[in-house]
Design goal:
Largest sheet: 11 strands, mixed
Order of helices and strands: HEEEEEEEEEEHHEHEEHEHEEHEEEHHE
Distance between the termini: 38 Å
Number of helices: 9
Oligomer: single chain
C-alpha cells in the first residue's frame, strides 16, 4: 500500500510545482530571539529584498538572531551580515527545512518550501512559511485529524481544511500573512510525515465545498454528534441553509458516543436559583426529580423555561448539549451523547462511513445539505 502511495505521489507532484501558496505564520506562540535553520533536502538561497546574499547547502546550519532590531546571520564560515528582512527560498523541486529555537529553547520542527523572516516588537522573529497549499492542508490534517483513518476520510478532511483556509485567506492580511498556526485559524505544526495524508491532500487538489449560492461554506466539524447533528441556529443563533440537523447512525458505536456525569440535587438547585432566579414557586420546581428527556435534539432545558442547553454545557463543562437527566437519590445523573458542538460533519461518523465504503462525496453530502464540490484557486 505504501509503495503504491509513493508511486502515485511521484506521478502527481510534477503537476503541482507551480501550485498556489499560502503564507502561514509559524511558531506564533513562541517569542523567538534566536534559532537555527537547516536545509534537509536540496539547497536554499538567502535573499534580502531581490538580492541574493548567500546559498546554504543541504545540512548546513544557519544561525539567526535578533540584534539591535535587525536580523543577524551567521553560517559555518562566519558572519553573513545584518538585515531588516530575509527570504530563504528553496533551490530544487522538493525542499524542506528544520527550525530549532535556541532562545527560548524548543524541539525541532520541519516545514516545506520557503521561509520569510523579519523582526517584530524590536526583539522577536516573525516567521512566515510560504508553502504550497496542498502541503499546508496535509500538515493541518496530521495535526488536527490524527493518523488512524482511511483514504476517503482523509479526502473529506482535506477538502474541509482547504475550504476553511480559502474562506479565511485574508484573515491576517494586514499583518503580512494569510493565516496563523493557532486553533482559531487551523492548527499547523509543519511538514506532514504521513504519505497517505499527503496523498489525500494532493488527490483533492483545488477541491472546496460551496453552498447552493456558490459561496464557500463554513467548514464546521466536531468529534461525535451522538446520533444527530445540530441546526446552526441552535448554537450560533444564525440559520445557515447547509448546516441542518441530520440523523446519524454511523457514530453511535464510537468512543465518544456516550458519557455520564453526576451532579448533586443541592448544587443543581443552587445553580438554577443563582443563574436563572428560579424559586420553589416556579413551575420548574414542581417537577421535583428534575427529569429531562431529549429523544431528539432540543434547544432549551425543560419545556417551561428558556434556559439554553449550550449555556448548561459551558457552565458544567459537559461534552455536549445532547443529554438527559434522571434522579438517583440526592444526585442527578446526566446521560449524554456525543462530543462537541454538533454542527456540520461528525468526524467519528465520517470515519465509520468511509470504512463502510462511502466515498468522500457521499460523506460530505450526508452531513452538509445542498452543497457541491467545486474547484477554486487561491484568491488574488
Amino acid at each position: 500500500m505504501l509503495k503504491k502511495l509513493l508511486i502515485s505521489l511521484l506521478i502527481i507532484l510534477p503537476f503541482i510545482s507551480n501550485a498556489s501558496r499560502v503564507r502561514v505564520r509559524i511558531l506564533s506562540g513562541t517569542d523567538i530571539a534566536s534559532m537555527f535553520f537547516i536545509p534537509v533536502s536540496n539547497n536554499y538561497e538567502i535573499f534580502s529584498d531581490t538580492n541574493k546574499i548567500y546559498e546554504l547547502s543541504k545540512a548546513d546550519t544557519l544561525f539567526i538572531l535578533v540584534e539591535n532590531k535587525f536580523i543577524k546571520l551567521k553560517a559555518k564560515n562566519g558572519k553573513i551580515g545584518v538585515f531588516e528582512k530575509i527570504y530563504l527560498k528553496k533551490k530544487g523541486f522538493m525542499n524542506n527545512f528544520k527550525i530549532k529555537s535556541l532562545h527560548p529553547e524548543s524541539k525541532e520542527f520541519m516545514f516545506d518550501d520557503d521561509l520569510e523572516i523579519s523582526v517584530i516588537d524590536n526583539k522577536k522573529l516573525l516567521l512566515i512559511n510560504n508553502v504550497d497549499i496542498n502541503y499546508y492542508v496535509a500538515g493541518v490534517m496530521e495535526a488536527e485529524g490524527g493518523r488512524q483513518a482511511n483514504m476517503e476520510f482523509y479526502k473529506v478532511q482535506a477538502i474541509l481544511c482547504r475550504t476553511f483556509v480559502m474562506s479565511h485567506y485574508r484573515r491576517h492580511e494586514k499583518e503580512g500573512y494569510n493565516v496563523c498556526d493557532k486553533v482559531h485559524c487551523q492548527v499547523y505544526r509543519g511538514r506532514c510525515k504521513q504519505s497517505n495524508i499527503l496523498m489525500a491532500a494532493l488527490s483533492t487538489k483545488g477541491m472546496v465545498i460551496a453552498s447552493d449560492s456558490n459561496n464557500l461554506i463554513i467548514a464546521s466539524y466536531h468529534s461525535n454528534c451522538g446520533g444527530q447533528t445540530v441546526n446552526s441556529e441552535d448554537v450560533w443563533s444564525k440559520k445557515i441553509s447547509y448546516l441542518r440537523s441530520v440523523k446519524d447512525s454511523f457514530c453511535v458505536h464510537s468512543s465518544n458516543a456516550f458519557w455520564t456525569k453526576k451532579i448533586s440535587v443541592k448544587d443543581w438547585e443552587k445553580y438554577l436559583l443563582k443563574k436563572y432566579k428560579l424559586t420553589p414557586k416556579d413551575s420548574l420546581h414542581k417537577n421535583v426529580d428534575f427529569s429531562f428527556h431529549q429523544p431528539h435534539r432540543k434547544v432549551f432545558l425543560y419545556d417551561s423555561t428558556k434556559i439554553n442547553l449550550r449555556e448548561i454545557r459551558t457552565d458544567w463543562n459537559l461534552k455536549s448539549t445532547f443529554f438527559e437527566i434522571t434522579r438517583d437519590g440526592d444526585n442527578l445523573i446526566f446521560k449524554g451523547r456525543g462530543f462537541g458542538h454538533g454542527i456540520g460533519l461528525c468526524q467519528e461518523g465520517a470515519m465509520k462511513m468511509s470504512k463502510l465504503g462511502y466515498n468522500f462525496r457521499g460523506i460530505i453530502n450526508h452531513y452538509f445539505t445542498n452543497v457541491k464540490i467545486v474547484y477554486q484557486d487561491i484568491p488574488k
